[in-house]
Design a protein that fits this description.
Rossmann fold, KGD_C_sf, seven-stranded mixed β-sheet, single chain, alpha/beta
Length: 949
């Protein structure tokens, strides 16, 4: 039979693609192909062993290549009848592939039916020469998942249209993994994308629609004209959220972290997370929900709760976020990552990130792409995110989709990470539930992102004060005539005798009564429940500012740590430059050399992890350090790092130590910094550090700094101990990479919201990093770190300074030749310029000028600074000296602090670069000229800005 098949079948070059797909189907399940194909592939692969067991003796690639070679040669002559049948089978197979690829474009997805279905020739049988006469002919259908091996062309087309052109439009053929494509084909085709829900499930869906619509109507009548970013027209989204929580919880997910912007947020708070309606109404009435210094509008607020479902309690957390829409995405991912680490959840089975997007923002906001790019990376991946798009087809005020994006679908950006997309008609809530269930299942099976695009509409404007008909007259005529998803679904259930005629109205009455009474509208919200992995934040909340902390480490422990972080595995070959660094650090640990910056930092990290504090250090070149000072990861020069050739000493400082991880991030600031912020808000016991490659790179993440880091606590009560390391220093390398924009951070400082620090010695950095964790205080820490000082011969410390001292907010004069009573002028500075000043003073031999260093710019150390000033009772002049232009740096922030510390009759002055539109000079000669002038000016005659108190 096999010989007859080979001489009379489809085995000619033109059918190579069809044969290859059949072969893939055979590999997945040999029984799924016809017997004659199975015999052919069995013989071709020679897969029968002597004992009759089936094994794969040869690679698949050569067989696939043989099919490709067939395609390069003319078809071998076969009988006319067989050739015609073969051609038709190939065309049928191509038609099937077209539906899988393009069926979504012809699906019934728009509740408003604003546009006619497009003409898609590839979905027309006539495009392949198939006619009405072929409709009753049987064709091979085993590679479909319809449960039959043979079916007529009419049956095949109807099944394909039911599956791919109904109220769900699936996009998955762009996935390169065959097993993932087959997963979607089986999941959709086996039931023709039409779920069969029980009557109880259908009633639950109606209840969810009723709750979604009921809350919006209640708010619309009770709080007329107030902004709430209504969900009306998109009520099926609440159905989707309920389905997601139920499905994920049943599969073992114990925490779900949700990020979303404004649309439908209040509805989610009440109907998904179970926020008390009375509390929401109080916010509408302008009553504060707490004693935060600032607070925020109701549609920015987050919330958390624990709900009981069939699989057990699930903790739901809706993340706080500002109006910058998608910026919350990486914050959510960071929070999820921290929770996974805390649980030891290595495959994402216990914690699920859920991102809710608007159609316009998802397509337009660059941080979406940045966040997606993190999805499969080692340091940032969360094993798949479920994305839900509330697609109201209009975005903000766009009058034409062509102005909203350049892609066909708003979700097309996710194809960069091969995420599947299910577009679903919001008027079919059962399809919405089915799509969400598939999404959750796919994420669990393959640990990848997946998108459900709920296509709906927006009954009101962008906010409730908008009149969208001004720019969208035809759309809003159709919206005015639309009865709503709840009414449509209630009518469907009445027609199916699932509910009685008055049941839908009864649902509405019960829900409204709950709202009137201000009580829970969601069943099974757990009160006073605390899960095993919940974090107690109370020790860190409402803490008053303190500078002091016992950060010293015993000398014996420091020596032990120094030995551990400089120990190299046997037969591990270091690069000569790195070998020298390790050799120098070994000498530092033996008191044979002073500590440089890298060693001081390493000892800080080592002492923390040895004490039980975890450390997470990330940035674009963090493992090595942008200026090659860190070398936290060592590379064997004879082996690739991915093949066991990397060694991290800080992971080996003690037999029982906390986690240390250092990650070279993707080339992103915005998403990565937001990720680390999110991580820090979920784990107060980890020192979370983000290092910019250069300080000015932080401005690529300015929205994160402005909206989360500097203001998250006063707006939302969100506590974060995130640390930012921003290399800063004027080295004559041009306007880029000189300035970390100190002035911007200081402008944001208020209410003890964060710390801005510029340390000048390794010991200071050691104590600063340790202080960040040892104090029961979690505030963002911004550190303006040096560049040239990393190897400066005077910017060093002794090991004893780590064992005896603590972080100094102000460092006074250290030269014993400067006698306090003889000092006439006090130079006050911060950062690298200090070393220029002491070098110049040494050159000109002036001992009547003292130099003070402000190490902590904010909160300003009034007490310590005042104590230093009192030492110089005869000083008549106080001069602030900085590298930065006068309109930048710390001058405008610090001048009033200097004034407060001055005595009557003292003069205050400034010495630094003149005001400039650019952060630094681009010409080295000009830089050198300006640097020389500001240093000499600090010691010369006062001029320019002089104020007498």
């Amino acid at each position: 039979m096999l010989k007859h098949f080979q001489s009379n079948s489809y085995l000619f070059g033109g059918n190579a693609a069809y044969i290859e797909e059949l072969y893939e189907t055979y590999l997945d399940n040999p029984a799924s192909v016809a017997e004659y194909w199975r015999d052919y592939f069995d013989a071709l692969q020679n897969i029968y062993a002597a004992n009759g067991a089936r094994v794969n003796d040869i690679a698949h690639a050569p067989i696939i290549e043989s099919f490709a070679q067939r395609a390069k040669h003319p078809a071998q002559p076969v009988r006319a009848g067989g050739l015609a049948t073969a051609h038709k089978q190939v065309h049928v197979q191509t038609l099937i592939g077209a539906y899988r690829i393009l069926g979504a474009r012809w699906a019934n997805l728009d509740p408003l039916r604003l546009q006619e279905r497009p003409a898609i020739p590839d979905l027309d049988p006539a495009f392949y020469g198939l006619t009405e006469a072929d409709m009753e002919q049987s064709f091979h259908a085993a590679n479909l998942y319809f449960g039959v091996e043979q079916a007529t062309l009419r049956e095949i087309i109807q099944a394909l249209r039911d599956t791919y052109c109904g109220t769900i439009g699936a996009e998955f053929m762009h996935l390169t993994a065959p097993e993932q494509r087959r997963w979607w084909q089986e999941g959709l085709e086996s039931i023709r994308a039409t779920p069969d829900f029980s009557s109880e499930r259908q009633k639950r869906i109606l209840e969810q629609l009723t709750a979604a619509e009921g809350l919006e109507r209640y708010l619309h009548t009770k709080f007329v004209g107030q902004k709430r970013f209504s969900l009306e027209g998109s009520e099926s989204f609440i159905v989707a959220m309920d389905a997601l929580v139920q499905r994920a919880g049943a599969m073992g997910v114990r925490e779900i972290v949700i990020g979303m912007a404004h649309r439908g947020r209040l509805n989610v708070l009440v109907n998904t997370l179970g926020k008390m309606p009375a509390d929401l109404f109080a916010e509408f009435e302008g009553k504060p929900g707490g004693d935060l210094p600032s607070g925020d509008v109701k549609y920015h607020k987050g919330f958390s709760s624990d709900v009981s479902i069939e699989g057990g309690p699930v903790h739901l957390s809706l993340t706080f976020n500002p109006s910058h829409l998608e910026i919350v995405d990486p914050v959510v991912e960071g929070s999820v990552k921290a929770r996974m680490v805390r649980r030891g959840d290595t495959d994402g089975r216990q914690v699920l990130p859920v991102q809710v997007h608007g159609d316009a923002a998802f397509a337009a906001q660059g941080v979406v792409m940045e966040t997606l790019n993190l999805a499969q990376t080692r340091g940032y991946g969360t094993h798949g995110t479920v994305h839900l798009i509330i697609n109201n087809q209009i975005g903000f005020t766009t009058s034409d989709p062509r102005d909203a994006r350049s892609t066909l679908y708003c979700s097309d950006v996710v194809k960069m990470i091969e995420a599947p997309v299910l577009h679903v008609n919001g008027d079919d809530p059962e399809a919405v539930v089915f799509a969400v269930q598939l999404a959750v299942d796919f994420r669990a099976a393959f640990h990848k992102d997946v998108v459900v695009d709920i296509i709906c509409f927006r009954r009101l404007g962008h906010n409730e004060q908008d009149t969208p008909a001004v720019t969208q007259p035809l759309m809003y005529k159709k919206i005015a005539q639309h009865p709503g998803a709840r009414a449509l679904y209630a009518e469907k259930l009445r027609a199916q005798s699932v509910i009685r005629a008055d049941d839908a109205n009864e649902y509405m009455k019960r829900y409204r009564q709950a709202l009137e009474e201000g009580r829970h509208t969601k069943d099974l919200v757990l009160s006073n429940y605390k899960g095993q992995y919940a974090i107690d934040w109370m020790p860190f909340v409402n803490r008053k500012w303190i500078d002091a902390a016992d950060t010293a480490v015993p000398l014996a422990e420091l020596k032990r740590l120094a030995e551990r972080i400089t120990a190299i595995p046997e037969n591990f070959k270091l690069h000569p430059l790195v070998a020298r660094v390790i050799h120098d650090r070994q000498a530092m640990g033996r008191f044979e050399a002073p500590l440089d910056w890298g060693m001081g930092e390493h000892l800080a990290f080592a002492s923390l992890v040895a004490s039980g504090y975890a450390v997470r250090l990330t940035g674009q070149d963090t493992a090595r350090g942008t200026f090659t000072h860190r070398h936290a990861v060592l590379h064997d020069q004879d082996r690739e790092s991915w093949n066991g050739g990397a060694y991290i000493p800080l992971q080996n400082v003690a037999d029982h130590q906390a986690r240390f991880e250092v990650i070279d991030s993707v080339l992103s600031e915005e998403a990565v910094l937001a990720f680390e912020y999110g991580y820090s808000t979920a784990d107060p016991k980890t020192l979370v550090v983000w290092e910019a490659q250069f300080g000015d790179f932080a401005n690529g993440a300015q929205v994160v700094i402005d909206q989360f880091i500097s203001s998250g606590e006063v707006k939302w009560g969100r506590v974060s101990g995130l640390t930012m390391l921003l290399p800063h220093g004027y080295e004559g390398q041009g306007p880029e990479h000189s300035s970390a924009r100190i002035e911007r951070f200081l402008q944001l400082c208020a209410d003890h919201n964060m710390q801005a620090v510029q340390p000048t010695t390794p010991a200071q950095m050691f104590h600063l990093l340790r202080r960040q964790m040892i104090r029961l205080l979690r505030k963002p820490l911004v550190v303006f770190t040096p560049k040239s000082l990393l190897r400066h011969k005077e910017a060093v410390s002794q090991l004893s300074e780590l064992a005896e001292a603590a972080f100094q907010t102000v460092i006074g004069e250290t030269d014993t030749a400067v006698h306090p009573k003889k000092v006439k002028r006090i130079l006050v500075c911060s950062g690298r310029v200090y070393y220029d000043l002491i070098a110049h003073r040494r050159t000109i031999k002036r001992h009547d000028i003292a130099i003070l260093r402000i190490e902590q710019l904010y909160p300003f150390p009034h007490k310590a600074f005042g104590a230093e000033l009192k030492k110089y009772e005869n000083a008549t002049e106080i001069v602030w000296v900085q590298d930065e232009p006068q309109n930048q740096g710390a001058w405008f922030y610090i001048e009033h602090h200097l004034y407060e510390g001055m005595k009557p009759g003292q003069k205050r002055a400034y010495s630094g670069r003149p005001a400039s539109a650019s952060p630094a000079a681009g010409y080295y000669a000009k830089h050198h000229e300006q640097q020389k002038a500001l240093v000499e000016g600090a010691f010369g005659r006062l001029k320019g800005s002089v104020l007498v108190k």
